[in-house]
Amino acid sequence: MRLSISVPAVMATSLRFGRIVRATGCVSFLRSASVRNHGSVGPAVQRESTSSSSQSEINREIKSFAELQNERQEQAERSVLLTCPQKVSEKSLLKYLSKYGDINNYFFYESFDVCAVVEFSQKNSIAMLQDGTVMPAGKHESCIPFKSRVFTLKINNPDDQANTRQSLPCLKQSAISINELVERISAETTLDEQICTLTKTYELTEENVRLRFLVCSLLQDIAIQYFPNCSVKPFGSSVNGFGKLGCDLDMFLDLDGIKEQNSNKTSEPFSVEYHLKRVPSERAATQNVLTLIGECLDRFVPGCVGVQKILNARCPLVRFSHQPSGFQCDLTANNRIAMKSTEMLYLYGSIDVRVRALVFTVRTWARAHGITSSIPGAWITNFSLTMMVIFFLQKRRHAIIPTLDQLKALADAKDKHIIDGNDCTFVRDINKISVSENTETLGQLLQEFFEFYGNFAFQKMSINIRKGKEQTKPEVSPLHIQNPFEQTLNVSKNVNQTQLERFVSLAREGAWILQQEGMTKASVLGYRPWGLAALLLPSTSDTGNKAKKRRRREGASERIKSLLESLKNSKSDGKNDATSESSGGKRPSLRTK
Ligand code: GTP
Ligand code: MG
Fold first, then answer.
1. Chain mean pLDDT for the chain
2. Which one, 214, 292, 371, 487, has least CB within 10 Å?
3. Could you tell me the pTM of the whole model?
């Protein structure tokens, strides 16, 4: 048997260190969170020394987005997915598979079935495995002979293996519920620790990221049959560092490899072009390509269910569920700007460890209160929320992260990138970005975030991360967040006044809750839930029936009751024009800065 299980990528990649970065608060939590995440998508952070209790130096190595993508894609191309029997001997399973070649890494998880992801050291192991794989015998149904890298493992002689069969050690691929999270973070002793625990609990695991890249690679196997130089890449929260376990898988079918071959060799007497079908626009071409892939998924590919072709959207897509992985997938094509904004968010998340932690916290808080939703509508999206956190961090007295224009000024010729006439240039080498002098803790930042947006002049001003300054709104949408690359667009155009008001009202309430005594540190009196846990509880603004029923069932603690009472009685400070009429005087007054 040749079985060589490598050092996990997480550890291997954290052995090389880069520049020194300042961080504050629960550094050890951030460190372990970030190291774990590095195997997946985020920056690696290694603590070096602690110069004071409030400020520590950490040494960090960060891979560029492109490096990480290439590494992961290559890893996925050497991997297979197997559905396994409920009980099987792990040892004999690995022994059997290793006859096709060395195994670098493997893990088990449970989705619809118990599944295994197996990464071979060499790509040719997969061809050998495929050669030795048989078609299933269908007695009553006919099968479509579609061969892929998804296999079903059958036990040939169940009696022989009866003694050694066991439940496989499955790793969870979903996030714990908000109630479990509240319980977990209530046991922490500081608000900073709560925030770090939330981040560690919800961030994508190494295995989950591997699975995401593998699903993209499986789709690429299909698309490549028609478009030989294409690739399928993940984008959005699967790879920008802000993904929560269970988030959707956004994929981008990149056909540019095909266009790249269009170089004219003018020194030759002739040149030969492919004879191609012409369609009226690039959009029509994208729609045709997605129609074809959508049909393939629907008709031939096992485990791809609920395929919807949403071709008239601003960005046409194919949406489906991938049962073996459990992912809800969105496949787009010709969506290079979204890929670039993913890279930008990855960079921002890598600059300072507080960025990811704050984004995770704000996203979780927003989801807990129904500010965001998985259903499309007039809600604020996670993408818009992330932009709001970035803007807020740019606006600190000592900015924690640079503006997009500053990142552009640091770019060199290699970073230059124009997409459809939009300048998407920014520096990609993180070592060129100076470390912020800001030493605020995560707890302080969370409180300030709520105060900042509780008072923001949404009615008149637009959020602009390119300039790092609010600017006069160019249009009447309730919430205006300038698209960083297509600057005439508003990424939050979908948000209506009611949803914006809910956000502002809840932000004010959040600021007020954190100002209360005992809300940033666990009290010896043992008030629970406190701090972040209290922020995640249903609020006065959660007026939906579900929240009402839940409150009735649970019964509020005395502290929460009095807190709600205070909220009702306190008066709005009226700073925010956009919300002053509709909040019915329920908002708490804010500490003046
Ligand atoms: P979750 O899926 O909610 O975890 O976050 P996400 O960041 O993946 O958001 P989503 O799936 O909605 O979108 C995927 C990516 O598309 C985002 O990360 C952005 O890069 C991009 N995107 C989403 N919405 C917009 C938008 O309104 N404007 C622009 N320019 N890009 C967007
Ligand atoms: Mg997404």
1. 82
2. 487
3. 0.84
